[in-house]
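Hi U.,

Before I forget, here's the chain from the pilot set. I'm dumping it here mostly so it's searchable later in email.
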Amino acid sequence: MHRNREIATTADGTPRYRAQYSKKTKRWRPVALLKPKAYSYIPDLLVQIFQTRRSVPGRVDQRIVRSAEDPRNIAANIAIIPRPTVQQLLSEHKSRFTTE
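Structure:
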């Protein structure tokens, strides 16, 4: 459903990239941004969730507290080195798939 999306482009048609940190190589690398996903299945999923929720006691809008050990509370990223600019990453990047 969300696979095989095209690469997102800017207004002038150039591909968009972001920086991603690799735990294995301990380096930053550029990754192409993809076009936004289409969530056409969400209305059906919401209907199924609320039908299931009707049988469970309690309120539908009750909040769940995140624990202190939740990984989302630790850090923005795991990089050891500071993040370089995307332009710098693109200039240094060598792809296995292109031959120049």
